[in-house]
């Protein structure tokens, strides 16, 4: 498929579509208990969101089909003036490498530049994103570091075990074989 076979719209995915796209794109999906209230509230509180759909399933240029799933998305959150955070950049694996991430990033950056020109826009990037986001004007915050707090994740036994293993590895000297 080419870029012309997709349409990128400003709007929100359905809560279930949001969950599914995050999961398919290897992003942590929201927990089941958040689907009824927290996910819809989160989506509604977006500063903006852009969603991509396959053109062939659209009712018209602005209306996705009744059961049509989003194939890519990206959101901006924040106060709408000085501080924004880019989140939820996700492209369905079957639709990657077709320019959708680029089109959504361009839409988000243009929207922020027009509607919040004084905003400090931040994001947390996985390794792939660390190579891609500089193309859109994002810079590393070093010597700062990214941090997070999420009781649901930090309380998970698997997360705790992985964190302890990482800390133990960091404590070993480079030549240690322990």
Automatic annotation (TrEMBL):
Lineage top rank: taxon: Eukaryota
The UniProt record lists the N-acetyltransferase domain at 22-163
Q: Name one Pfam family in it.
A: Acetyltransf_7
Q: Which InterPro entries match?
A: Acetyltransferase_Butenolide, Acyl_CoA_acyltransferase, GNAT_dom
CDD domains from the UniProt entry: NAT_SF
Q: What is an example of a GO molecular function annotated in this UniProt entry?
A: acyltransferase activity, transferring groups other than amino-acyl groups
Q: SUPFAM superfamilies attached here?
A: Acyl-CoA N-acyltransferases (Nat) (SSF55729)
Q: Which PANTHER family match?
A: FAMILY N-ACETYLTRANSFERASE, PUTATIVE (AFU_ORTHOLOGUE AFUA_6G03350)-RELATED
Name of this chain's protein: N-acetyltransferase domain-containing protein
Q: Which organism was this protein described from?
A: Didymosphaeria variabile
